[in-house]
Fold:
Amino acid sequence: MKTGYGKIKRGVLAVLCILAVLSAAVPRAVISAEAASVSSGEKKKIRRLLDGSILNYIEGYCNIPLSKQGDFKFHAGMKTDIAFHNVAYKDNVFSQYSSDRALMEKYRPYGGVFRYTDSVKEAVKKKGKQLFGNSFKLTFADSSGGSDFCNYPLSPDGKYVLMNFSDWGDWYVSRNYTGFAKKGSVYTARIKITAYWGGAEDDVTVRLFHADLKKKGSSFVITDIVLDK
Structure:
């Protein structure tokens, strides 16, 4: 009897050990499967989209002193802001640019104005839909101000888009993707931006962002941009 009991006891312990190993391995397997669901090809497409569309804009936000930064909220106004930032130097938009002294004195923009013409509107709409999908609405912020962060507000009379994007000068910035993930149909890219003024390398500003995206055909559209820290 003692021998039989010992065998049963050893058998039970062996089963418990196997179950313990499996329970510890399953979460890791799930995490690995989730991470693996973002293929290298998808990562390249996401990086190419973000590098070419939103990161220069976000880096400009990081260039603004903390005391002057408004709330970074991803809403219709910011989508329009980013879309305009992407087309500002295209021929049909930049041809509407002016730094005429009278306009500079009247509207007090940081770097000039763009006439708010139909060709400008169409360029911004087209780029907005490419970046953010069919939910994109043309919604420029009001230059009278407010808590929402904005680089390209409309003048009070609605005739001009004011260029208030920050000057780079001796500002240094680097970006780094810290991870990609997928949950359901939503892809997430995490980004770390490090910035400092020339000669002030010991005074470094670090901002952590993440961007959510969804597939649209063979490409992606951006559904959210969040300042995490």
In short: The longest strand covers residues 171-183. Confidence is low (pLDDT under 50) at residues 12-36. The first helix runs from residue 2 to 36. Residues 91 and 97 are 10 Å apart (CA to CA).
